[in-house]
Design goal:
single chain; mainly alpha; 10% strand
Length: 195
């Protein structure tokens, strides 16, 4: 009987050792699988980042253009308070009073973006260092369609349409540096001050 109990204890101990070994193997396999899954997900997100970056810019611009103008601003501009009027309608008009209202709405819109932290997140994953002062630049006096290829190469988004005065309106995600690039190229060969 004692021999039987010793054998039973030994068998039970062997089973426990086998169970521990199997549990360790299963845990190791789970850790390896999880690590590979996380690495794959990380690579996938890194590959998506340029697409995410490019989606943010039109979203910010078009959301701003579709902001509804408030009743007080409509009255200030002598517009029909019964009509639904958007920021893009004021940009179309392009007069000084409309520009003043647009700037005020832009400032408020960008403050709300900052509160939501969406822009901070955009800066982090895009690698841009864009400041709020650079955002939503509006050009009211262009004579032609913008250089879209140049803007895309410059990592910028631009929305455009013709205004009331037949000039093109450009609404940039951020201030365009294309004009600065053109000026720099034009004067790059000129030596200043006799140097």
């Amino acid at each position: 009987m004692v021999k039987y109990l010793k054998n039973k204890k030994a068998v039970g101990l062997k089973e426990q050792v086998i169970l521990y070994i199997l549990a360790m193997l299963a845990l190791s396999a789970f850790i390896i699988f999880s690590n590979n899954y996380v690495s794959t997900s990380k690579l996938h997100v890194e590959k998506m980042a340029p697409d995410l970056t490019y989606e943010y810019e039109p979203l910010l611009v078009k959301s701003f253009l579709m902001l509804e103008v408030g009743e007080d601003d409509k009255k200030k501009l002598n517009l029909d308070t019964g009509d639904v009027i958007y920021v893009h309608d004021l940009i179309f008009l392009g007069d000084d009073d409309s520009k003043e209202v647009i700037e005020s709405m832009k400032e408020e819109y960008l403050k709300n973006q900052n509160i939501l932290k969406s822009f901070d997140s955009f800066n982090k994953f895009s690698g841009y260092n864009v400041k709020f002062d650079d955002l939503l630049e509006i050009n009211y006096q262009a004579n032609s369609i913008p250089d879209l290829k140049g803007e895309i190469e410059n990592n910028n988004y631009v929305f455009y349409f013709k205004g009331k005065d037949s000039k093109y309106r450009y609404i940039y995600f951020r201030k365009s540096s294309l004009e600065l690039d053109r000026i720099n190229k034009k004067f790059s060969g000129i030596k200043m001050g006799g140097y």
